[in-house]
Amino acid sequence: MARGKRKAALATLQHEVRGWQSDQELFDAAVADLAGLNRTTWRCLDILGTAGPMTAGQLARAANLTTGAVTGVLDQLETAGLVRRVRDTADRRRVIVETTQEVERRAAPVYGPLMADSDKALRAFDADGLAIIVDFLRRQRRLLTKHTARARALLAQRPAGKDEGKRI
Fold it and tell me: What's the pTM?
């Protein structure tokens, strides 16, 4: 009986995680639209906001973009006042990209209410419960990283122009 209960619980969890991922994508799209940015530019800004300052090359790898595409994205974000390029103090040849305070200022009306509601919802969990959630999310992120690389490797193995109608 316990085995069936666990199987049902896992199915429910997987369903809820997939639903959450879809809801997150819809929210991100709405916020990108609100910011006047396309999804790629928004994703790059999000990567910089979560991972912190990095070079354009590092951002290109993180976003799976060419360095040329990232240059265009960074030009757009810099023009909007959302990022700045600064010389690396340790190596003056390197340029580091970082977000500006403008990101926080513009994000506050959108994310402030979400974070307040999230704080209320998370009050249902004590520190141990929150630690379990954090552990779950970290494990899932590692799996996503692993399987994103695997999916990209499968794509790289596909002959160009073949199987166009047979994609997932």
Answer: 0.81
